[in-house]
Each structure stands twice: as C-alpha cells, then as structure tokens.
Amino acid sequence: MTIEGDSICYVQKFRQCQIHGDFIWVPPNELNIMGSPWSFASWGMDVIGPRACRIEWTPFILVEIDNFTIWVDVFTYKALTKQIVAYFVCNNIVCPFGIPESIITDNATNLNSDRIREIFQKFKIVHRNSTTYRLKKNEPVEAANKNIKGILL
Questions:
Q1: Which one is predicted more confidently, 148 or 87?
Q2: Which among 92, 33, 39 has a CA at the least distance from the CA of 63?
Q3: If you classify domain 42-152 with CATH, what class do you get?
Q4: Going by C-beta distance under 8 Å and a sequence separation of 6 or more, which residues neighbour residue 138?
Q5: Which residues is 44 bridged to in the sheet?
Q6: What residue stretches are annotated with the Integrase catalytic domain (predicted)?
Q7: What are the phi and psi torsion angles at 144 (to 5°)?
Q8: What are phi and psi of 113, to 5 degrees?
C-alpha cells in the first residue's frame, strides 16, 4: 500500500471526515419527468374506433403501451366489448408481465365498464382516466395511435 492508499482508507473509515467533508457540487440541471419507475409498472390503453380504420375486417384496434419503455402492442378486433377488454387485460398484460401498478385509459365506455373495474379491484390495479383537457397523462398512447393511423390509412 502507498501513503495515498492508506490515507484514503483512513478517511473512509473515520466518521467525522464522512460527516463534515465537502459535498460534491454538481451544476443544476433541468429535471426530467419520469412516467413510470420501472418496466411494466404503468400501461396505457386506447381504442382506435371503427371510423378511424379503413380496413373492413378489423374495425377496432386496441393499443397497449408500456409507459417506461414505450413498447407498443396492437391488437385488432371485429367487435370490442367490455368482456373482450377484460380478457385482454388478464391475458395480454397481467399474465405475461405481472400485475401493473396502474393502467391509464381514456373515457371510452368499453374501457371504463363495471367488468373492468372488477378486474382492476381484483388485481389491485390503479385505474387512471385521461381527460380531454389533460391529454399529457396518456400522451405515449396518443402518439402511438397517430403513428398507427398513419401506417393504416
């Protein structure tokens, strides 16, 4: 060991040096908003309804997105009922990725039914609705919807 190594070990072990030592000063930076603390903890869901799609055999598109990784999954359905949405949440979110902390949806009736509320209460998932005056809450899903519509139309 060298004198420098010995003094570093001594300072690291000495409590008074740890308490009264200088802080590391870092210049201030702008804080970034973090939507989700870890992968698959928060999901966004939205429906691209029948008028937005020109494909006759798939009039409804259900979009899910992980808010941490911005990973998008798209599923097509001929009809999108509350039973299909409940089945979708169980088999495409909860089973493969575990129970999320929250799911953000818009105010569509098939995404806000009693059946969906029962599923969310059963798995203790927080259900958040994005409102028309606060679209930032579900912004990743809306951006994905815009891209999907651009591809399909």
A1: 87
A2: 92
A3: alpha beta
A4: 44, 46, 104, 105, 106, 130
A5: 65, 104
A6: 33-153
A7: -65, -40
A8: -85, 170
Please state which of the ranges 18-32, 63-77, 93-107 shows the lowest mean pLDDT. 18-32
Are residues 101 and 125 in contact, defined by beta-carbon separation less than 8 angstroms?
A: yes
Q: Phi, psi (5° rounding) for residue 77?
A: -140, 150
Q: Are 68 and 38 in contact (CB under 8 A)?
A: yes
How far is 16 from 93, CA to CA, in rounded Å?
Answer: 51
pTM above 0.70, yes or no: no
Report the distance separating Cα 151 and Cα 147, nearest Å.
6
Q: What is the pLDDT of residue 35?
A: 57
Domain residue ranges in the chain: 42-152
Q: Are 75 and 91 in contact (CB under 8 A)?
A: no
57/71 Cα distance (integer angstroms):
25
